[in-house]
Amino acid sequence: MSDEAQGKIGLLQEQGMSASEQDMRNLEHNAELYRRIVEFSPDTVIITKNDVCQYINETGMKLLHAENKSEIMNKSILDFVHEDERESLKDRVTNLNQGETALPHPYTLICLDGSVAEVEMKAIPTFFNNEKAIHIIVRDLSEQKITQELMMKSEKLSVAGQLAAGIAHEIRNPITSIKGFLQLMESDIPEKKDYFEVVSSEINRIETILNELLALAKPKVSDMKEVNLIELVNQVVTLLNTDAIMKDIEINPVFNCSRCKVICDENRIKQVFINFIKNAMEAMPAGGKVMIEVEQSDLVTVIRFTDEGEGIPEEIAGRIGEPFFTTKSDGTGLGIMVSKQIIENHSGKVMISSDTNGTCVEVEIPLSYSR
Q1: Based on the domain organization, do 232 and 351 belong to the same domain?
Q2: Are residues 66 and 183 in the same domain?
């Protein structure tokens, strides 16, 4: 016997503990360690016998929105699966009991509060209290889906940027030539003045779309300087106030800070504010109030634009900001997208919340710009 082994035995004897007692303690320690690993696993762990839940870990309680385990224990696992998928799960459990492999499969779980969770379930045979059981591992796919959606939006933004550069390059020069010749024709044919005004108006609209596309195609921020947001907001309000009064809309700025200065591109930020205020006004065709709140902390300045409209319908809320998506008959589908990109190029972020009482757009701009 080695000196090390003899030393351990001597130590156990000094402590009045036999080797078998030490083995038992080691087993208890390992069992507790395994219990903790399972209990606090990032995936839900459920053990069932004859489809009835015998065990669920803490993660599973949170996934199913349960306050305690008794709400889930001794219930059939099928009770938590969407009715359209129960037969499929029954077949998989039957195959598993017959020794076949059950690969991960997507399911829709019905939580205790009625909400749904998109998950992936994998089952393996096990023993529980010395009886055959099924060990089910449930992985929540919600974060994975969010990541996929962000990747898709990023890809759309990339495609839109490439389109923007190509369209602006191919169209801008011909438009300039058309405008010049139109002005020459207008002076020669004064009796058709109304027609020329319509054509000129439509050309100006094309130029507006091109300018938005160019803003999308040029993501880098330039002309960075210290800007007083109180002055900038007041300038924008003055610019839009006449139109607001005609539409029976009150624009009400509230400044919860004395200076509110940030490092930014003044013209770009002004463009963002104009876009959000115009959207707020268009959301209230019968009139109302647009609140603009500005406040500042040690790190960021927050600007909120709140309207009193009917809010954004739930079915399209997720598409707000997608390139070329718009609900307006004369919209380009680029305003919010370009605004978001401008703020992101300032290392800030835009958050949109909406309900039946109106919509709030919150813009955060860091006090110090870094890129």
Answers
A1: yes
A2: no
- Residues 195 and 167 occupy one common structural domain: yes
Task: Give the three-class secondary structure for 227.
Answer: strand
184 shares a domain with 50: no
Residues 131 and 158 in one domain: no
Q: Which residue bears the tokens 């005609």?
A: 246
Q: What's the domain count of the chain?
A: 3
Beta strands in the chain (DSSP E): 44-49, 52-56, 105-110, 116-128, 131-140, 224-228, 249-255, 261-265, 288-296, 300-306, 349-355, 358-366
The rounded percent of the chain whose pLDDT value lies above 90 is: 8
Give DSSP secondary structure letters for 111-126: -TTS-EEEEEEEEEEE
CA 213, 216, 219, 223 dihedral sign is positive
User: Could you read off the pLDDT of 71-130 as tens digits, one per residue?
Assistant: 888 888 888 888 888 888 888 877 777 766 667 888 888 898 888 888 888 888 888 888
What is d(CA 270, CA 287) in angstroms, rounded to the nearest whole number? 23
Angle at 341 between CA 336 and CA 345, to 5 degrees: 150
* H/E segment holding residue 159: helix 142-188
Are residues 363 and 303 in contact, defined by beta-carbon separation less than 8 angstroms? yes
Mind giving me the DSSP string for 238-252? HHHHHHHHHTTEEEE
Residue 219, φ and ψ in degrees, nearest 5: -75, -15
Domain range for 205: 145-217
Contact 309, 277 (CB under 8 A): no
Q: How far apart are CA 263 and CA 265, in angstroms?
A: 7
Please check whether residue 6 lies inside any domain of the structure.
no
Residues 130 and 193 in one domain: no
Q: Which two tokens stand for residue 163?
A: 């389109």
Domain contains 1 = no
The count of C-alpha atoms lying within 13 angstroms of the C-alpha of 145, restricted to the half-sphere facing its C-beta, is 9
Does residue 21 lie in a domain region?
A: no
What Rg value do the Cα atoms of the chain yield, rounded? 32
**pLDDT tens readout for residues 171-199:** 877 888 888 888 888 777 877 778 888 88
